[in-house]
Amino acid sequence: MTVAEERVIKKYANRRLYDTEESRYVALEDIRQLVMDSRPIRVVDAQGGEDITRSILLQIIVEQEEKGQPILSTRLLEQLIRYYGDNLQAFVGAYLEKSMDFFIKEQTVLQDQMQSLLSAAPSSVWKEMAERNLTLWRDMQQDLFRTFISSAAGPARKDENDH
Asked: Crossing angle for the helix pair 53-66 and 28-36, nearest 10 degrees?
């Protein structure tokens, strides 16, 4: 499988978004669909060239949160706000990212195992799933501990993808 090239979207002063690959103006919903399709994107300010991808992704999250059932409760948002500027901010971000990665992996594993449940002995599938969950959880905790130790040792190195 080949890795798709990053799709560049330019944001103009009139707040319009322009997809440079398809040579057309797009809406936030179009960018959301690119993300849903696992298509790497980068949004840049057309005038200054600065990377504003995070800002656009946050706008998409706000739109999604306003529709239907939100993922981010008021309590969770308050807790996140409390960690901005805290010396554990890098650790919290890493923890949330690792937790989401873990959740996605587990969802995929669970779906695969549920499919194989139809053709295998149920007890062996549940045992394998439990063992895999324990291994993934232990690995995630070790990664988080290493992140915490490195963030406590000095200022966190800024990820090149976060601008």
From this structure: 100
